[in-house]
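ARCHIVE CARD
CATEGORY: sequence design from structure
SOURCE FIELD: tokenized fold
FIELD CONTENT:
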């Protein structure tokens, strides 16, 4: 598994779980089948800007908001193979197994241009708020999925 995949998995784990420390994160990574050295995990956490913060009286590993969007955008953009459309919808093709993350990322942006997404294994169906602005939706997707 390459660095981008590993860091994306780290972010997924942190998003889906309340992780107290790197030891727990390392354990959760191993449960997904990833064998990662502690030193590599420490470097990944530093690169991703992950900090240990006290939230509601408990410690939790989190990504600061100012870094999260930029980092996730770069990682998600790597997973997208193509963006195409017809008169009514937009289709995003991704690497196998990555459509859910791309769709979830777009949903979290809460754009008024997009009603919602439906993700399969390697395809995301983007349903626009108006079929009259398909080109605007495509521009928005490109702007928010790919590094500038």
């Amino acid at each position: 598994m390459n660095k981008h995949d590993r860091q994306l998995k780290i972010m997924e784990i942190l998003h889906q779980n309340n992780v107290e420390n790197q030891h727990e994160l390392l354990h959760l990574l191993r449960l997904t089948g990833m064998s990662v050295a502690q030193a590599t995990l420490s470097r990944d956490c530093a690169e991703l800007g992950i900090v240990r913060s006290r939230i509601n009286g408990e410690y939790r590993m989190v990504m600061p908001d100012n870094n999260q969007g930029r980092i996730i955008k770069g990682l998600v953009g790597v997973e997208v193979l193509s963006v195409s459309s017809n008169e009514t919808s937009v289709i995003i093709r991704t690497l196998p197994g990555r459509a859910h993350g791309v769709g979830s990322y777009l949903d979290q942006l809460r754009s008024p241009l997009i009603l919602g997404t439906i993700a399969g294994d390697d395809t995301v169906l983007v349903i626009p708020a108006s079929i009259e602005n398909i080109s605007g939706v495509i521009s928005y997707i490109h702007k928010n999925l790919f590094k500038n």
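CARD ANNOTATION: The longest strand covers residues 80-85. The two ends are 25 Å apart (CA to CA).
SHELF: design records, drawer C
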